[in-house]
Specification:
This protein is of the alpha/beta class and 387 residues long. The protein has helices spanning 14-25, 37-56, 70-82, 101-114, 131-141, 163-172, 192-195, 244-260, 263-281, 308-317, 337-341, 346-349, 365-380; strands spanning 2-3, 64-67, 92-96, 117-121, 145-149, 177-180, 199-203, 214-218, 286-287, 298-302, 320-321, 328-329, 332-333, 352-356. Helix 7 (192-195) links the parallel strand 6 and strand 7 (199-203).
């Protein structure tokens, strides 16, 4: 079995599994907010995890708010910036068309409820946002921009965006910049303080930690308003008893990244061999963002005229688990919003499959995936997408 959907959710890494086995055997549990000895020991362990995460992410522990994941973090940041804003002249949100639905739906919600305007910067055909247009919009709208939201790396294509340049543009115009770093952290070295980003978010399950864990990175946490109201946890910014064991697994998983990062280059080289092999067999195959800066472990590929769901089923029958971006309505495949924003046509967009490995994957997995994909295309290449 080969699991190739790391961009969807990474398996628990071995180090986390071993940690949890020892952790549960010790039966070391308590409420970290209790003032008795056990509670204070748990609190100390949790804060040590926060300090470890902060060091690995290039910032101070006070800049980390621990939560359930990136979606909650995004919602809290939108709530903080949009709800009862003091400067009513700032009534415009600038986003990209390749954002995760958590960004898109939050922008739409606040636009409707606070009468805000949404401007979407275009995406170039290579999958990178149009930085020239974004620069022009910021210069023109700088006095009315409430926030800018452009991700660091796309979950479908794996294409890395110029987030540092965007952060610099926002800094110069004093515009808060929210960057969804969910697909970047734990896969590429990232230093929050050096990035210039105001708010970043991530989810632990994307890099081998437990699900239901996440982080807000905030340059200035005083700008945040509580979204989950509770007993004052996380310095009043996130109520509810903390998922302390989950947070510990984030520190363990992210620590292993430092040791495994060297493997990324080997995976990148093997991916290039895999992609070249497929294109050699099938020159009409399309690799989305092939010449753009991409995550080392993501391939987004389509065979024009072959449905992505059909390819996915064929691969799964061989024990290889990938995904497509296609949403289904009445069993009819459709091209994703990300691909539409790139100008990808339906004959390609309906046929994509996303192959995403991780730093825990075996380099040789690409050989087996290549064999399986060639077999799938041989079988399905005469099946055309219905109009």
């Amino acid at each position: 079995m080969i699991y190739a959907d790391y961009n969807g959710s990474a398996p628990l890494c071995d180090e986390v599994i071993n940690y949890l086995k020892e952790r549960y055997e010790k039966r070391f549990f308590a409420n970290p907010n209790a003032i008795h000895f056990m509670g204070q020991q748990i609190l100390m362990t949790m804060e040590n995890s926060r300090a470890t995460l902060a060091k690995l992410l290039g910032t101070k522990p006070k800049n980390l708010i621990l939560n359930s994941g990136a979606t909650e973090g995004i919602s809290q940041i939108f709530h903080s910036l949009c709800y009862k804003r003091e400067n009513l002249q700032r009534n415009t949100i600038l986003i990209s068309g390749i954002e995760h639905s958590a960004i898109l739906n939050n922008a739409d919600y606040w636009a409707k409820n606070e009468n805000l305007e949404i401007i979407t910067v275009e995406t170039l055909t290579d999958g990178v946002v149009n930085l020239a247009q974004l620069t022009s919009i910021i210069e023109e709208k700088k006095d009315s921009l409430l926030m800018v939201a452009v991700m660091a790396a796309n979950n479908e294509t794996g294409i890395i965006q110029p987030y540092k340049e965007i952060a610099s543009l926002c800094q110069k115009s004093n515009i808060p910049y929210l960057c969804d770093t969910t697909q970047l952290i734990g896969k590429v070295p990232f230093n929050f303080d050096d990035s210039g980003i105001d708010f970043a978010v991530t989810s632990g399950h994307k890099f081998g930690a437990q699900t239901g864990t996440g982080i807000i990175l905030s340059k200035n946490p005083s700008l945040l308003k509580p979204f989950v109201i509770g007993g004052g946890q996380e310095k009043g910014l996130r109520g509810g008893t903390q998922n302390y064991i989950g947070f510990e697994t984030m520190a363990v998983a992210l620590s292993t990244f430092q040791e495994k990062w060297k493997k990324a280059e080997a995976l990148k080289e093997k991916r290039a061999q895999f992609e070249n092999r497929i294109k050699s067999e099938y020159p009409q195959a399309v690799i989305i963002g092939e010449n753009s800066p991409r995550m080392a472990t993501t391939t987004y590929i389509a065979f024009p005229g072959v449905l992505g769901q059909a390819v996915q089923i064929e691969l799964e029958s061989l024990g290889i688990y990938v995904t497509t971006s296609s949403a289904c309505s009445d069993n009819e495949a459709s091209t994703s919003n990300v691909l539409k924003s790139m100008g990808v046509t339906d004959d390609i967009g309906r046929g994509v499959v996303r192959i995403s490995l991780g730093l825990c994957s075996q380099v040789e997995d690409y050989d087996a995936i290549g064999d399986a994909l060639i077999k799938a295309y041989q079988k399905l290449s005469k099946i055309k997408i219905a109009n």
